[in-house]
Write a structure and sequence with these properties.
14% helix, mainly beta, 5 helices
Length: 435
């Protein structure tokens, strides 16, 4: 069934909170009476040392309960992809319903690159990966060819939200259901309050969030929310702080009685007042408190900044967020800044500006794939400690604009860009397992 299969043992470990309740309670503030019974009545230094020893024992117990993680990666065949879809697409819609993988829409440059006069083509095909026949099959069409929307799971299917067609952005939202008996069912869902594209979306249970992107054609800080179990329309939440963000990443986790939304990556392309910016702040939103808070920065252990612009994410164990792909931070911001200044250089005539832009792009767009240094790392964010680590490093992760659907026990990384203007037709099945 597969072209390539690997099993990777990650260096990252996951702690399981399995220590007895009495020991765990020693780390809280309301344990003075309990300590009175648990620790011998030794005054002064001896008493403090007894407490330190007991807390150290708790820490050791936690460490001994840590478990290693494995990631299985399987490359699906591209058999059955027809026409220009054989060249791969980015920013597609997708769904994983009862072990059935669906992929729809997306876009590519099938002939020439954009700076050469090539036209970006949008697709409307809805494909199903037939595991029995080990090939892709076309099973339907979108209402219109589109890409740059979002795909999120809900309890009774998936939502395909917003996006961009060839000439306009979309507010449309569709509920996707599929079964072998009833085949594909695509129905209208309450539309977004305004057209959105290149935004991020996530879900947790029946709750669905969308954030950032282009809202009515402009970079946005807006956040919209709907509970598919109770709501008939989308609601606007508190905007996230500071810079508007295009192509960010979001993920949601449950926290006690609250839901936390985490926002990563994204960029701002600049305007008449502000220069381009790359967002490396990690923001957290409390649905209960309706507030945003800065909780971390996108940086490695040795303080090197990275970006998750164009990446995709998956929540694991209601604590960790695994982020796949994305562009190289320094190369990306330098490029969009250079182009920003060329576009606003008042010393250039229109013809000279056009030629300078062409010369720049003809160099930038024609480099080998390795030059662009898309993230090969799967960056892992621990929402408890607010720390980053690298779960795994694979060349196959180095793509932007891929689509991710599924759960840690089975998820798919669908196609995407290998470099600007060049897509991959490959889809990968991944599993995250703890021993």
């Amino acid at each position: 069934m597969v072209n390539d299969k690997r099993q990777i043992m990650s260096k990252k470990t996951f702690s399981k909170s399995l220590m007895p309740a009495v020991l765990r309670s020693l780390t809280t503030k309301s344990t003075q009476s309990l300590l009175h019974y648990c620790i011998p009545p030794l005054g002064g230094v001896r008493g403090r040392l007894s407490l330190i020893f007991l807390l150290a024992l708790i820490s050791c117990t936690e460490t001994q309960k840590e478990q290693s993680m494995k990631m299985n990666i399987t490359a699906l065949t591209t058999q059955g992809l027809e026409g220009d879809l054989q060249k791969g697409v980015s920013a597609a819609y997708a769904a994983l319903i009862d072990d059935n993988l669906l992929v729809a829409g997306g876009c590519n440059f099938p002939d020439k690159l954009g700076f050469e006069g090539g036209k970006k083509v949008f697709y409307d095909e809805i494909l199903h990966f037939n595991k029995t026949q080990n090939q892709w099959q076309t099973i339907g069409k979108l209402p219109e060819a589109a890409a740059y929307g979002a795909s999120v799971a809900i309890p009774d299917g998936y939502l395909w939200i917003g996006g961009q067609a060839a000439t306009n952005s979309l507010a449309n939202c569709y509920k996707v259901q599929y079964s072998k008996e009833k085949a594909l069912n695509l129905t209208d869902f309450p539309a977004l309050p305004e057209p959105l594209d290149n935004f991020a979306a996530t879900s947790i249970g029946s709750k669905v969030f969308v954030a950032g992107g282009n809202a009515s054609g402009k970079p946005s800080n807006k956040v919209y929310y709907i509970d598919t179990a109770t709501d008939k329309e989308w609601h606007r939440l508190t905007d996230f702080p500071e810079t508007a963000s295009v192509q960010p990443v979001v993920a949601a986790v449950a926290h006690e009685s609250d839901t936390h939304l985490y926002l990563f990556g994204g960029f701002f392309g600049g305007d008449t007042i502000h220069a381009p910016a790359l967002i490396t702040t990690v923001w957290r939103y409390s649905l209960q408190q309706q507030q945003w808070q800065k909780v971390a920065t996108e940086e490695t252990a040795d303080k090197k900044l990275f970006t998750l612009t164009g990446a995709t994410a998956l929540a694991i164990d209601n604590r960790y967020i695994a982020c796949f792909g994305g562009v190289n931070a320094s190369l990306f911001i330098n490029t969009i800044t250079d182009l920003y200044h060329i576009g606003r250089d008042t010393t250039l005539t229109d013809e000279a500006r056009k030629q300078k832009n062409y010369d720049y792009m003809s160099h930038y767009m024609t480099q080998p794939i390795a030059y662009y240094k898309f993230n090969q790392e799967c960056y892992l964010f621990d929402t408890h400690t607010k720390q980053w680590s690298v779960l795994d490093t694979q060349p196959d992760f180095a793509r932007a604009g891929a689509t991710l659907v599924g759960t840690p026990s089975e998820f798919y990384l669908v196609q995407g860009e290998l470099k600007p203007g060049v897509r991959s037709p490959k889809t990968y099945k991944l599993k995250i397992l703890s021993n």
